[in-house]
Design a protein that fits this description.
Length: 190
């Protein structure tokens, strides 16, 4: 049983995954490698001079793995609630159980619509439909959250990655029963 399962490993999903895994949550990320970010050349991400989209996506997955997240190449075809958990089904026949699910599916809202997540018109250029989330990232289905482009934020890597982190922090806080913060201390070399 995973604590948090994330659909999509673009900036939103991988960022959520690394925060969740670093917080000690058993974390699964499933991605079918059809993201927007692989087509981007990025020069406007704070702290990064420039980076090719495919490199950013690969680094994001590596960073999530570094903290213990499991990253699976597959397509999620269904998410079904069974009691107090979700069962996540994949195209390759996989079946995974998780307490919470984050949809970070980029421009695609197909899975969300199939499983009954409420949508609304998008406001960003070329984004027709997004998921109807509250300020914390909750969808209308208790336990299913959303982050990044599919959650209607501005379509830029620093914002989608930040939104993924935000949603993960909110879920970690909910699971822990207190607000969560992840701060490491810089130790200058003497
Ligand atoms: C040509 C181009 C240039 C860009 N240039 C810039 C730029 O210069 N600066 C900038 O900040 N932003 C740029 N962007 C935008 C940037 O790529 C996006 O803002 C951001 O990366 C989107 O992140 P995301 O995680 O929401 O979505 P994505 O990166 O699209 O990730 C979503 C992931 O979910 C996966 N997925 C979807 N459905 C499923 C499913 N059912 N099962 C499993 N996996 C699934 C997809 O395969 C994908 O990997 C550019 C975009 C494009 C297309």
């Amino acid at each position: 049983m995973y604590d948090i399962a994330i659909v999509g490993a673009g900036p939103a999903g991988a960022s959520a995954a690394l925060f969740a895994a670093k917080a000690g949550k058993k974390t699964l990320v499933i991605d079918n490698d059809k993201g927007l970010t692989k087509r981007a050349w990025v020069e406007n991400h704070y702290g990064v001079m420039e980076i090719a989209g495919p490199d950013m996506v690969e680094l994001g997955k590596q960073q999530a793995r570094k903290f213990g997240a499991e990253v699976v190449d597959d397509e999620v075809t269904d998410v079904v609630r069974e009691g107090d958990k979700f069962v996540i089904k994949t195209a390759q026949g996989g079946s995974y159980e998780a307490k919470r699910v984050i949809l970070a599916t980029g421009i695609s809202v197909e899975l969300a619509e199939k499983i009954g997540v409420r949508t609304k018109p998008g406001t960003e250029p070329r984004i027709k439909t997004v998921l109807d989330v509250d300020a914390e990232g909750r969808t209308n289905i208790d336990g299913i959250w959303a982050a990044g482009t599919c959650a209607g934020v501005s379509v830029h890597t620093i914002i989608t990655a930040g939104d993924g982190a935000k949603v993960a922090i909110n879920i970690i806080s909910e699971l822990n029963g207190e607000r969560y913060v992840d701060h490491d201390l810089y130790q200058p070399k003497s």
